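Q: Convert this sequence to structure tokens.
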Amino acid sequence: MQTYLAGANLSNANLQDADLSRVDLSGGNLTGANLSGAYLMDANLSHELFGDMRWDKNTNWEDVEGLETANNLPAALEKLLGE
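A:
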């Protein structure tokens, strides 16, 4: 089952340890969000707006879709994901 949060404004949201697997967040805003320990497997982040957000070694980015079209992806995250 996929949850649709396309276009959602999640700026500054505390999503620490949240299960966001298979969530459609395309076109949303994660600027300043805390994704530490979040589970994003198979989430759709295309055209997502990133910024000064937080994540850690426990954040699961496995098979995340759409990062190649994300806006303002932090350089450290690009390096981590090999984008």
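The helical segments are 75-81.
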